[in-house]
Amino acid sequence: MAKGNESGQHGGYPGATAATYTTPATTLADNRTPFRCVVSNAAGSTASTSEMLAVTASATTPRTFACPLTTSGPVGVPFRYTIVSTGGTTPLTYSASRLPTGLSLDRSTGVISGTPTAAGTYDIPITASNTAGSISATLTLTVTSRPPVVPINAWRQAHFGASQINLEIAGDAADPDGDGANNLQEYTNGTDPLAPNGSP
């Protein structure tokens, strides 16, 4: 076994005559040291190409979570949340237990995604880990039964189109379907302002 240096000269390792070689304990100073193997018999010898030894700093444990530990989303609506940690040497792996039905975790990216199927508040233990150790926390996810709130102007546009600017039709106090509930009440209740039966 031969070791190279910047001048291109090579020196052998005494006793390194086996088919494999294990280095002594390395330091950062050994990074990018070239090695090559020389094979000999009675007819002569030949040398391999040089390979670089890569020495990196010791792995460090993740320090903290850089993502909010409370989040929410409604039933039946696609959900996405990413576990983010700081300070740890990559690669990192993530875990999350007791996820609501319909959600799953990508352990390599930390992304929790899917469509939740049941309302409730869920305390989800999460971890970020590498070869040096791990950190843990609890993510509180609230799954609501109501759909997300739509701004009233967007609601008017969806229901009245070009007539949204006509206050007699689309104003808060107007009752275009004549069912006794004005537009503001229809918006609050999540019902159709153009359906006399008050259907959602």
Shape verdict: rod-shaped
Oligomer: single chain
What is the H/E order? Answer: EEEEEEEEEEEEEEEHHH
How many distinct domains? 3
Name of the CATH class of the largest domain: Mainly Beta
Mean pLDDT: 86
- The CATH homologous superfamily of the largest domain is named Immunoglobulins
Query: Low-confidence segments, ≥5 residues, pLDDT <50?
Result: 4-10
- The percent of residues in helical segments reads 10-25%
Beta content comes to 25-35%
Note the total helix count.
Answer: 3
Structural summary, described in words:
By secondary structure, the chain is mainly beta. It folds into three domains: about 1-55, no CATH class; about 65-145, Immunoglobulin-like (Sandwich), CATH 2.60.40; about 150-190, no CATH class. The chain has three helices and 15 strands. The protein has helices spanning about 150-160, 165-170, 185-190, and strands at about 1-5, 10, 35, 40, 45, 50-55, 65, 70-75, 80, 85, 95, 105, 110-115, 120-130, 135-145. It has a four-stranded antiparallel sheet, with no helix packed on it. A four-stranded mixed sheet has the order 8-15-14-11, with no helix packed on it. A three-stranded antiparallel sheet has the order 9-13-12, with no helix packed on it. β4 and β5 (about 45) form a beta hairpin. The chain is rod-shaped and about 105 Å long.
